[in-house]
Design goal:
Strand content: 25-35%
Mean pLDDT: 89
Shape: globular
Number of helices: 5
Order of helices and strands: HEHEEEHHHEE
Number of domains: 1
Largest sheet: 4 strands, mixed
Helix content: 40-55%
Length: 139
């Protein structure tokens, strides 16, 4: 899915690594590297570059808080799988050049997330939801 998003956005992925961590871990990274003393669901470190053939190659480490995904799924009345996808898509969209600091940028980012959620929910429907930590329940 993530490679397909990059391709649709006319980008090439060399290497993108996702780390799934706790709120505490991501909060610590946020304070240390970005000087933000807040909880967040995702931090994207972009190491992308242009190679000798003028190809822009995406390289990144992306940290995702599973605790935030769980809480935000409840807050926004969605399932864990959909919220996880939204956040993963958000990270790759940042690498593709989308920002979300200004109101208009936030709208564009949300539209892109929704667009890809629609595309990929048809290809790969969510089939389980977390009922208790560590337990999956089939629909």
């Amino acid at each position: 899915m993530l490679m397909e998003i990059a391709e649709k956005e006319k980008k090439m992925v060399e290497r993108v690594v996702y780390y799934f961590v706790s709120d505490d871990t991501l909060h610590s990274i946020n304070k240390k590297h970005l000087q933000h003393d807040t909880l967040t669901d995702i931090i994207t470190f972009d190491y992308s570059y242009v190679d000798a053939y003028n190809n822009a190659l995406l390289v990144s480490e992306i940290y995702v808080s599973i605790d935030r995904i769980k809480e935000n799924a409840q807050l926004f009345n969605t399932d864990f799988g959909t919220e996880l996808r939204r956040v993963l898509f958000h990270g790759i969209l940042h690498l593709c050049g989308y920002k979300d600091k200004k109101p208009a940028e936030k709208i564009t980012m949300r539209e892109k997330e929704d667009h890809y959620l629609t595309i990929f929910s048809n290809k790969f429907p969510v089939r389980s939801k977390i009922t208790k930590p560590g337990l999956l329940k089939k629909f």
